[in-house]
Design goal:
Cytochrome p450, globular, binds 3-methylbenzoic acid
Length: 394
């Protein structure tokens, strides 16, 4: 079988404005395809994407999970000791992070995070009309997450620009990459300073990481880079995760009614929302050996683009994949990835989403769009700039 070659650039504006439409063509072209404009292999079907994510020995992360191959190019920032690292080192850093970002730690935070969600919901519902992205999707994580990591109060708006730049930098050096980098020039310095032990609040996750990293024999600079991971991965992801989840409920009003009738479903809503429209659309891997996929040989040292979002709507795997449906089993979705690199913060994201919904359920009878959602283009994230809504109070 020959390798289908497609003239699709998944980082051009046309693609990024409407990824789901292009995903159909990518999936239907074959189990593995060649994307000529960016000169790399790609997979968009659930079976292949999931299998590649599970096979970290063949598809490594240490050469970067963006288009840039760290074996040939200097990364734009020192590589993440989690995301852009392989075994055995990865398991040491991940092991110590798992002790800090734990279910127990989250259970302790729950009452405070819940109170913040209720206060915010109370204020927004009183207004009736608000922007579900800026007023809720951005506002809520910013109310709880920076305090938990323990970063300085002053200058926190840098976090959003920094995270956007990090996710843009997984793509090619296109205009979006350059604009993100320029916009985040000051944020890079702010984040570097915020990650230092002296900058972090006592009793925070940040200082806990410094202690755990020191115990594991990491240098101070390595500990700072581990804190940096939380700030890189924990902001724009949850911001858009909540924003897109609100879009899902506004688009499928019967699902809001179902949630209100069965509030326990709040715990599963984010996973179905991520399956329906994945915040993190793509990640790359690099092959560590020549590997055979459905009659095609991918050589050693090749970049491979994995379309997580396309896999999550693959009709070969999901019934009626374009429907947001709280009743469906979401197990197996790759919105948080899969395998050893699967999202470290997934419990944080789920808790934030659950608490936002818990605060809205008793107060909101209906959610209506009052205008078209506005996209914010990013090389990796399916992001929203604005989602104007009006709620009908309960
Ligand atoms: C999953 C993710 C995204 C961006 C940055 C990082 C992780 C990191 O570890 O720095």
């Amino acid at each position: 079988m020959s390798l289908p070659a497609l003239a699709i650039d998944p980082f051009d504006e046309g693609f990024l404005r409407d990824p789901a439409t292009h995903h159909v063509a990518l999936r239907d072209a074959g189990p593995v395809v060649w994307l000529a404009p960016i000169q790399c292999y790609a997979m968009a079907r659930h079976a292949e994407v999931s299998a590649a994510l599970a096979d970290h020995a063949t598809y490594c992360s240490g050469r970067g999970v963006g288009l840039a191959d760290f074996a040939r190019e200097t990364p734009w920032r020192p590589p993440s000791l989690l995301l852009e690292t392989d075994r055995p080192r990865h398991d040491q850093t991940r092991g110590l992070m798992n002790k800090v970002v734990s279910l127990r730690a989250l259970q302790a935070l729950r009452p405070v995070w819940s109170a913040r969600a209720h206060e915010l919901a109370e204020r927004l519902v009183a207004r009736r009309r608000f922007d579900a992205v800026t007023d809720l999707g951005e506002a809520y994580p910013m109310l709880v997450f920076p305090d938990t990591v323990g970063v300085p109060q002053e200058g926190r708006e840098c976090l959003l620009r920094y995270a956007a730049a990090v996710f843009n930098a997984f793509g090619p050096r296109n205009a979006i990459f350059d604009e993100g980098e320029a916009a985040a020039a000051d944020a890079v310095g702010w984040v570097a300073n915020a990650c230092r032990r002296e900058s972090l609040a006592k009793g925070s996750w940040g200082t806990a990481i410094h202690s755990a990293a020191a115990d594991a024999g990491c240098s101070e600079a390595e500990a700072e880079r581990l804190v940096r991971s939380l700030l890189s991965a924990g902001v724009d992801t949850t911001v858009n995760g909540i924003g897109i989840m609100m879009l899902a409920f506004a688009t499928f009003p019967e699902q809001w009614a179902k949630l209100r009738a069965e509030p326990k479903l709040a715990r599963r809503a984010l996973d179905e929302s991520l399956r329906w429209d994945s915040t993190v659309q793509t990640f790359f891997r690099t092959t560590t050996r020549a590997v055979d996929i459905a009659g095609t040989t991918i050589p050693e040292g090749a970049k491979l683009l994995l379309f997580l979002a396309a896999a999550n709507r693959d009709p070969r795997r999901w019934d009626e994949p374009d429907r947001f449906d709280l009743g469906r089993p979401t197990s197996g979705h790759v919105g948080f990835g899969h395998g050893i690199h699967q999202c470290l913060g997934q419990m944080v994201a789920r808790l934030e989403a659950e608490l936002v919904l818990e605060a809205l359920i008793p107060r909101v009878a209906e959610i209506r769009l009052t205008g078209a959602p506005v996209r914010r283009l990013n090389n990796t994230l399916h992001a929203l700039a604005s989602l104007p809504i009006e709620i009908v109070p309960a």
